[in-house]
Amino acid sequence: MYxxxxxxxxxxxxxxxxxxxxxxxxxxxxxxELIDALIKKAALRKGLSHREASVLLxxxxxxxxxxxxxxxxxxxxxxxxxxxxxxAPLYLSNYxxxxxxxxxxxxxxxxIARKKxxxxxxxxxxxxxxxxxxxxxxxxxxxxxxxxxxDYYLESIKTIYDIKxxxxxxxxxxxxxxxxxxxxxRLLKEAGIGTYILFQETYHKExxxxxxxxxxxxxxxxxxxxxxRAMEGGIDDVxxxxxxxxxxxRYEFAGLLMHAEHLEAAFGVGPHTISVPRLxxxxxxxxxxxxxxxxxxxxxxxxxxIRISVPYTGMIISTRENQETRERALxxxxxxxxxxxxxxxxGYYMPEPEDENSEQFDxxxxxxxxxxxxxxxxxxxxxSFCTACYxxxxxxxxxxxxxxxxxIQNCCHPNALMTLKEYLMDYxxxxxxxxxxxxxxxEALNVPNEKARAAVLENxxxxxxxxxxxxxx
Length: 473
Ligand code: SF4
Fold this sequence. Notes:
The chain is of the alpha/beta class. Helix content is 48%, strand content 9%. It has 20 helices and nine strands. It has helices at 9-12, 15-27, 32-42, 50-58, 62-80, 119-132, 150-162, 182-190, 205-211, 220-224, 226-232, 249-267, 296-309, 323-332, 369-378, 388-391, 396-404, 408-426, 430-444, 450-464; strands at residues 83-93, 136-141, 172-176, 193-197, 238-241, 273-275, 314-317, 336-338, 382-384. The longest helix is centred in the first third of the chain and has 19 residues, at 62-80. The structure holds iron/sulfur cluster. Iron/sulfur cluster (SF4) binds next to loops.
């Protein structure tokens, strides 16, 4: 039975409710009166239910679809301005005992190079990432109770936060690891993680069980209820995601929104972020073996519909996607992107020898971080290296409250400018710096509050003189 408050996955991601939702969306995909009302409702910026949003995703009327895209762009601007938060993945280990059929780290893959970083190797990786200019990392690892223990993660997080190299520092460590216990989530929270990320992969239980034939991840309910346990363990920023291509995208979309509704209902705070990975080529994996792949137009529509349905949730796109796709996605709702990423274990410090491959997927956007930053600024985006909310305790419902009433802009815009200035001073090429300095000079004058504007200008001047403090609002 569908119950948004229930702690059981089968209730809050209820299969019958999703089927009824899809049938309702099919019946109404040309109901212009209803579609018009739903777009107007979305324009109030309070979000849409999974049923309402599913009608818009199914809408086939081109004129109405253009309205949806336009609204997504506007909502993106209203909540996130022109800031794009930058991050990089850091693969700690690709040992894994699961049998996920779409991932090259699955246990039966005998020809992938298995690696786990030592603390010394983590130091090397993080120093290389700091030298690129990164301040925010997403740790990634397979599931393996022998190699990838909670103690290993905790030690690694401490190592990363302790590394101070030139002006570099990793100020926010997010983590994407297997579903675990409330006690372990509590330990991760105490270790100072930012967001706990766990992709559902697919919300379709029957498909999930087939796609995860062996290993602990086979337990659909334990996996799907992980965010509830994370929240019980005190982690109030959680990141959802689906691997699009595994099952029908409309089913996944409804499930994803139901998951967000459940977290909001049960804990008073929805997901901090939603990621939108698509299945990609990788060692031992051919995406053509999966017949639910989505084309670029469908992908764009999905992003726009997520944007208007959960306007206050950050959206993430990785280097799985190429420059062109990322450019379109940024306009429609994406607020965080990775840059200069390596998806191998140990790939930042030392390129892998030709005969070794430990990558999780082939990267489509292979540009350096400097190139990505320059590209963003040429489109008038402000690449932001800010991590202030997390360090100021603005997480969970405190963050959401500020975001929903629009006050977050007063912190984010100045912080984005100051962290971009630090990046330009410390890491940018002369060409990128020249573009960025012009952009910052213009944008600093757009800080609405007079007192804040004066403080930003003063801080920018201090950064320019290399007189550093931990500048943040
Ligand atoms: S998706 Fe995760 S759990 Fe599954 S094989 Fe890959 S690393 Fe392991």
